[in-house]
Amino acid sequence: MMTHQDVVVVGAGISGIAAGYNLKKNCPSKSFTIFEGRSDLGGTWDLFRYPGIRSDSDMHTLGFRFKPWIHDKSIADGHSILEYLNETVDEFKLREKIVFNHKVISANWLATDNLWHLEILHDDITTKMTCNFLFMCGGYYSYDNPYQPSFPGQENFLGPVIHPQFWDEDLDYSNKRIAVIGSGATAVTLVPALAKKAGHVFMLQRSPTYIASSPSEDSWNQILKKFFSTKLTYFIIRWKNILWQSFTFNLAKKYPETIKKRLLEQVQELLGPDFNIQKHFTPTYNPWDQRICLVPDGDLFESLKAGSSSVKTDLIDSFNKNGIALKSGEQLDVDIIITATGIELNALSNIDVSMDGVAVEPHNKLAYKGMMLGGIPNLAFSFGYVNASWTLRADLTCEYVCRLLNQMDKQGVTTCCPEEDPQALADDDYINFSSGYVQRALNRMPKQGKKSPWRNYQNYLLDILYVRVFSIKDKTLRFYNPKN
């Protein structure tokens, strides 16, 4: 076991792989290791194994800027994404930098020696090491503890109750009646996938979600790749999608009723005039107050039209031996219940972070540029966009960290730290989203301030300026050597 590295990266998912690439390219003199708590890389795409698992963002933006996505499917299945991540790691010779089955459990900054002291768990044995800079790339939710509400009478149900995060790949659901509880990305993915083999699938939702259908293959991609190189085609499609996402998001914020009307019209067109979209597909909130679910080629709607699945918008009264009793008085008799009830957000990769032995509470800190914490030296974290692909911001964050490390070397200093500005004032939570998984985690996530650099704008075009154009030095970020 090594005893010291210049940089320690936590996690070998999308963010950790991006960190490895950028460190190797832009900070070649720095020693670094990527610690992955699981036995394989890929993060979400290795963890989730439920039927139909796929991206809910296009792969031209969910893919890395430095590694073109070459497949026809723009909305890709989980297996293809995992293959892509493994190809990236091998192409850029990053596998040798990843240490599997090693989970960073605590990190303590000791001012006396200006280092992070880490505790790492492997095979039930805890080892210790130090690093100069700690980069959290372990994702945004708990792999061990998803959100699992307790339902009255749950113990009375005779069939299996499964959370998608812990999918049983040996489960035979052929010709079974299944209830999928939820209306988010996981539920709308599971329902049409299960319906191919199941007897019938019910999507049981407390309230509707905005759902948009999009072709699984990008028509521009099909045309452009006939004339241009793979790299140039990828670049053009990537930027086409980035600009379109930015345009439609801002349009939704400015004209919510117009976008709402168009989204609902699309659903009505796909399901036909007799389907009650007012009840089942009309949320009480505005578009992009929560993330819009994407279904490729309208597969959910095709399943509903075919009669292999149906939507129930109702509240759960209780479970019983045969299924679920609803508040409306209806009984839903099923063989299997799947609780697609969501994730639990965590902060700082669920690591116990402290300074000189005093616990750091992220919720009491302002987030600097959405990637560092006020008053915490030599620490950065990767947290993607909620209104666009995760990778877009992960890539930028990794670029920024490399610029930061190189700036420290240029100035001959060992430490950098954002110093909280009393004038910035804690204004809002880190993510302004009404989704349940966000609201449940407000007491764990950092705060954002009223102005830059403490404002989390969720704007890729603006973030590019901060990362690639503007000077890394500002009045907030302090570079220094500690006094001995």
Task: Walk me through what this model shows.
By secondary structure, this protein is of the alpha/beta class. The chain folds into 2 domains: 4-144 and 346-480, 3-Layer(bba) Sandwich (FAD/NAD(P)-binding domain); 154-339, no CATH class. It is built from 13 helices and 25 strands. The strands form 7 sheets. Strands 1, 2, 3, 4, 5, 6, 17, 18 and 21 form a 9-stranded mixed β-sheet that branches. Strands 7-16-8-9-12 form a 5-stranded parallel β-sheet. It is globular and about 70 Å long.
Question: Which CATH class of the largest domain?
Answer: Alpha Beta
Query: Can you tell me the CATH architecture of the largest domain?
Result: 3-Layer(bba) Sandwich
CATH H-level superfamily title of the largest domain? FAD/NAD(P)-binding domain
How would you sum up the global shape?
globular
Number of beta strands: 25
- How many domain regions? 2
Low-confidence stretches: none
Strand content is: 15-25%
Helix-strand category: alpha/beta
What is the element layout, followed by pairings?
Layout: E1 4-10, H1 14-26, E2 32-35, H2 44-47, H3 59-62, H4 78-91, E3 98-99, E4 103-110, E5 115-122, E6 125-136, E7 161-162, E8 177-181, H5 185-195, E9 200-205, E10 211-214, H6 219-224, H7 230-254, H8 256-271, H9 277-280, E11 293-296, H10 299-306, E12 309-313, E13 316-320, E14 323-326, E15 331-333, E16 336-339, E17 352-355, E18 358-359, E19 367-368, E20 372-373, E21 379-381, H11 390-411, E22 415-418, E23 426-429, H12 436-439, E24 447-449, H13 460-469, E25 477-480
Parallel strand pairs: 1-2, 1-6, 2-3, 4-17, 6-21, 7-16, 8-9, 8-16, 9-12, 10-11
Antiparallel strand pairs: 4-5, 5-6, 13-14, 14-15, 17-18, 19-20, 22-25, 23-24
